[in-house]
Amino acid sequence: MIVRAADEKGAPFTLVGRDVTFLRTYHSLAGQALHIQTFSWSALNKDINAETERRSKRRLLNVQIPLHGAYQVENAATAYAALKLSGLNVSDEAIARGFARVKWPARFEIVRSDPPVIFDSAHNQDSFEKLRDSLDEYFPDKQVYLIFGASEDKNIPGMLAVMRSKIRRLIVTRADHPRALEVGTIQEIAEQVEVPSEAATPVEFALQYALGLAEKDGSIVLSAGSMFVTAEAITAWKKINTSLQAP
User: Fold this and answer.
1) How far is Cα of residue 2 from the mean position of the Cα atoms in its chain?
2) In the beta sheet, which residues pair with residue 70?
3) Residues 114 and 231 in one domain
4) Which of 83, 100, 117 is the last residue of a domain?
């Protein structure tokens, strides 16, 4: 559909994975690395059908990103293509340096490794699927205490269903936001999809409670479902750490 619309409008179209290929070469809790196969951007910009020229100028650009999840590799390749096609005079070397320093708060952000504490902004079924895949990849043998809240318009059954196998217990809370669903409503939905839950409000208390549970069994403490909930959880985490470091 997107390709057809671009053709109808005569708009330049670049497809990551076809015109810009990439390969993840390494990943760990420290980050990940990828190869991006470059080519003649001038030929692509001018819509010149010069495949021989493009092939002759292709090379591999090695990039490292301190982010987690296979989807971030595709995001990096997409960002690279957008930068090169933007008309800005940004070298591959400058892009690689920038990627190595990138920060993305609350996107599978691991703030502690043992027991793990992760903040994520997943708030729909698709992003929860990616979140589950990342948990399976980085922490295959661990379950999570999921600090969860959601807005009224979200597909809560879908989000919880895709994460059900990873959830040890759902800690239902509510952000200080007018669109946030009541805790009891979310618990009713959780019961329908057979996810064990309990209520803990406000968000700061939910985090403290989940941390206490994780200390006993080493499970992951994860905040997701609402960007508002995760934002409050991050604030609470910083407050907790500040108090621990105080003399």
Assistant:
1) 24
2) none
3) yes
4) 100
For each successive 10 residues of the chain (247 residues), what is the average pLDDT? 86 86 94 86 51 58 95 95 90 95 95 96 96 96 97 94 96 95 97 96 98 97 97 96 64
Is residue 86 classed as helix, strand or coil in its secondary structure? coil
The region, left, alpha or beta by phi > 0 then psi within -120 to 50, assigned to residue 146 is beta
- 130 and 72 assigned to the same domain: no
Residues 54 and 138 in one domain: no
Token pair recorded at residue 242: 């500040």
Q: Give the CA count within 13 Å in the CB-facing half-sphere of 224.
A: 33
pTM to 2 decimals?
Answer: 0.86
**Calpha distance 12→2 (Å, rounded):** 11
Query: Residue 77 to residues 81, 111, 119, 166, 224: CA-CA distances in angstroms?
Result: 6, 25, 24, 29, 26
DSSP string, 122-180: --SHHHHHHHHHHHHHH-TT--EEEEE--BTTS-HHHHHHHHGGGEEEEEE---SSTTB
Please name which of 237, 202, 246, 196 lies closest in space to residue 106, comparing C-alpha atoms. 237
86, 131: one domain? no
Residue among 121, 102, 113 nearest 230 (CA): 121
CB 201 within 8 A of CB 217: no
Distances in whole angstroms, Cα of residue 173 to Cα of each of 17, 115, 178, 186, 210: 40, 21, 14, 9, 11
